[in-house]
């Protein structure tokens, strides 16, 4: 029949088009979930993502930052017990798993300019009335734990950031570091590498300071007026060479540091530095740098202090004295579980650490409280009768700042179980207002991008992935750069080292992700007494809206890994017949989650950002 003006074909075509549209899922695809499971997934995610509460996040942070809680202190145990009580209150099967590790506390630290003039570094961060916690008792003194004991004197040499290329320039200029005290800047490079390269060239001590060009008045108002580091602010940090040698307790490499476990003598611990090290404020560093003479440094070595940044050596001569008590102390890991209903022997681990260098509001308590709201959100979903397919594990590690201690010891103690059962390890460290950033195992890229796509940025209401991409496009230098960013989509960087995923990813081959919101100027208080509740609530996330978004992001990720329908068998994980340390054939696959890994003895790993690790 001819297709005339009254033909029924156009109406039929419209009806078919509408029907086809009705069959299109409202939610975009999610890896591991068939189309007919998307609606149920979306409903569960709605419950989970609407549960995190800003008032609760604030309350947890206030409680957990009330007292200093560095590893090995009574405060660290109190924070662990607080988190344990919350986990149990929410119905999780939770306990504290205790380990012990070498945690040397400073007994003596002194830095003195002995010529051509005399100056004694204050090495003290003063209390300020605008910060209620800055005058607390029990704060860890400014120090670089694990630095060797010593009392040494030498001519001072300035080595910029202490990067390999900086030491190479000194080598080219025939500046001999034997017997010298080296002073370097923070902000770039791994702390332990700065120390090691100086020691390899014969230096007798290293001083590390934060220059205000990157971390102080040159960036903006200093604390308490603004978020940047004040003149007396000091960045503590471990001297342990956990990135290049091995993470965890230096005396138990490769096995869990339980009470009574075999321990190496300190002389055999390869991750311990060989020379004294001390951190300085830029207020204390300035008189030392001002006393230097010798050749001028390159322009890109110069900071923002009112000094010439001469290289030396001398005439500045500096005495450095350090001594620690070298005691073994307890670690308190908090571990909570929601057992899986179908595959209980498949584990999805989500973790943060709970120890700080002092009060640690940003690092690590911000990440820890978001994890706690994630756990509570799942407890609310359990009330509906839902159960996860796989076992969900929530962990708060102790001793991360000292060299990834608690996480590494737990991974070593449970290594065989983790090789058999761990599906994925999801890590956070801290968060702040800003954009969503992520790093992860290569074959987790699609999973991470889909989660980021569905996370809502709390300020714009847009997809967090889209906000991150738009920000990256503003920094593109060419049209080709913009095209690459647009084609690639949300960036998922490779992981290296620097926080608690290391033992799981680098040594056990567990697919891992580390991500969260950041972008606020957190470095101004980083590892100082000023990383406090007052600082965080004024400058980093005043309304805890990014904390709520962080928790919503985490519940979505953990639900998708923990409840997708594809079964993760040992064959699918690629573990049948494999041996520890056998990188070949250990491709771990589960709903598209895969990574090649190495199990067994701790090995070296690059920093996750190619520079100063975010923690430690």
The class by helix and strand makeup works out as alpha/beta
Q: Superfamily at the CATH H level of the largest domain?
A: Zn peptidases
Oligomeric organization of the protein chains: single chain
How many domain modules?
Answer: 2
Q: Strand order within the widest sheet?
A: 1-9-11-10-12-14-13
What are the low-pLDDT stretches, counting only 5+ consecutive residues below 50? 1-25, 569-615
Q: Report the end-to-end length measured between terminal Cα atoms.
A: 80 Å
CATH class (first level) name of the largest domain = Alpha Beta
Give the biggest sheet. Answer: 7 strands, mixed
- Helix content class: 25-40%
Number of helices: 18
Mind telling me which CATH architecture of the largest domain this is?
3-Layer(aba) Sandwich
Total number of beta strands: 14
> Cα-atom Rg, whole angstroms?
26 Å
The CATH topology of the largest domain is what?
A: Aminopeptidase
β-strand percent reads 15-25%
Mean pLDDT: 89
Morphology call: globular
Give a structural overview.
- This protein is of the alpha/beta class and 616 residues long.
- The protein folds into two domains: 46-102 and 328-460 and 493-573, Zn peptidases (Aminopeptidase), CATH 3.40.630.10; 107-324, Glucose Oxidase, domain 1 (3-Layer(bba) Sandwich), CATH 3.50.30.
- It is built from 18 helices and 14 strands.
- The protein has helices spanning 9-22, 38-50, 54-64, 74-89, 164-172, 191-200, 212-215, 282-290, 361-382, 405-413, 415-421, 445-454, 464-474, 479-488, 502-507, 533-540, 545-563, 570-573, and strands at 93-102, 106-115, 119-120, 150-158, 181-185, 205-209, 277-280, 317-324, 328-338, 343-353, 390-397, 422-427, 434-440, 512-519.
- Helix 9 links the parallel strand 10 (343-353) and strand 11 (390-397).
- Helix 9 (361-382) packs across helix 17 (545-563).
- The longest helix is centred in the middle third of the chain and has 22 residues, at 361-382.
- It is globular.
- The protein starts with 8 loop residues before the first helix and ends in a 43-residue tail after the last helix.
- Residues 1-25 and 569-615 have low confidence and may be disordered.
């Amino acid at each position: 029949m001819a297709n005339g003006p009254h033909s029924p074909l156009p109406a039929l075509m419209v009806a078919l088009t509408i029907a086809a549209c009705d069959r299109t899922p409202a939610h975009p695809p999610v890896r591991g979930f068939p189309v007919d499971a998307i609606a149920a997934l979306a409903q569960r995610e709605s419950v989970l993502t609407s549960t995190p509460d800003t008032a609760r996040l604030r309350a947890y942070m206030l409680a957990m930052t009330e007292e200093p809680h560095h590893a090995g202190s009574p405060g660290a145990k109190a924070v662990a017990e607080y988190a344990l009580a919350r986990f149990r209150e929410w119905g999780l099967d939770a306990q504290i798993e205790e380990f012990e590790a070498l945690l040397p506390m400073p007994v003596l630290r002194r830095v003195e300019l002995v010529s051509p003039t005399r100056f004694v570094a204050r090495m003290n961060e003063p209390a300020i009335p605008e910060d209620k916690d800055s005058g607390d008792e029990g704060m860890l003194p400014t120090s670089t734990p694990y630095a060797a004991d010593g009392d040494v004197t030498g001519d001072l040499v300035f080595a910029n950031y202490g990067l390999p290329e900086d030491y190479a320039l000194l080598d080219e200029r025939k500046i001999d570091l034997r017997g010298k005290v080296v002073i370097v800047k923070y902000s770039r490079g791994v702390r332990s590498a700065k120390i090691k390269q100086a020691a390899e060239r014969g230096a007798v001590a290293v001083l590390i300071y934060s220059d205000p060009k990157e971390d102080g008045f040159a960036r903006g108002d200093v604390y308490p007026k603004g978020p940047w580091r004040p003149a007396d602010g000091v960045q503590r940090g471990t001297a342990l060479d956990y990135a290049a040698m091995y993470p965890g307790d230096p005396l138990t490499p490769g096995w869990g540091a339980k009470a009574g476990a075999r321990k190496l003598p300190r002389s055999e611990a390869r991750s311990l530095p060989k020379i004294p090290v001390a951190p300085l404020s830029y207020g204390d560093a300035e008189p030392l740098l001002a006393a230097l003479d010798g050749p001028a440094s390159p322009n890109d070595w110069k900071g923002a202090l009112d000094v010439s940044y001469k290289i030396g050596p001398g005439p500045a001569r500096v005495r450095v004295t350090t001594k620690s008590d070298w005691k073994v102390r307890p670690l308190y890991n908090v571990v909570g579980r929601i057992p899986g209903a179908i595959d209980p022997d498949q584990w999805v681990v989500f973790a943060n650490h709970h120890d700080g260098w002092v009060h640690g509001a940003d690092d690590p308590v911000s990440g820890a409280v978001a994890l706690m709201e994630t756990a509570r959100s799942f407890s609310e979903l359990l009330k509906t009768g839902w159960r996860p397919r796989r076992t969900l594990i929530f962990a708060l590690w102790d001793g991360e700042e000292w060299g990834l201690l608690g996480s590494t010891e737990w991974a070593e103690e449970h290594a065989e179980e983790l090789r058999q059962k761990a599906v994925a390890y999801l890590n956070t460290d801290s968060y702040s207002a800003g954009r969503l950033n992520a790093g992860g195992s290569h074959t987790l890229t699609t999973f991470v991008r889909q989660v980021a796509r569905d996370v809502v940025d709390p300020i714009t209401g847009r997809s967090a992935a889209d906000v991150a991409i738009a920000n990256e496009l503003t920094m593109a230098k060419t049209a080709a750069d913009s095209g690459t960013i647009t084609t690639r989509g949300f960036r998922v960087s490779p992981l290296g080292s620097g926080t608690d995923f290391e033992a799981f990813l680098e040594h056990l081959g567990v697919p891992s992700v580390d991500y969260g919101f950041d972008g606020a100027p957190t470095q101004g208080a980083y590892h100082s007494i000023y990383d406090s509740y007052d600082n965080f609530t004024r400058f980093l996330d005043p309304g805890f809206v990014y904390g709520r978004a962080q928790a919503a992001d985490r519940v979505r990720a953990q639900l998708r890994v923990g409840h997708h329908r594809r079964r993760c068998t040992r064959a699918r994980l690629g573990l049948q017949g494999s041996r520890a340390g056998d990188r070949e054939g250990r491709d771990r696959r589960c709903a598209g989650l895969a990574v090649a890994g190495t199990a067994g003895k701790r090995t070296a790993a690059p920093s996750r950002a190619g520079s100063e690790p975010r923690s430690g």
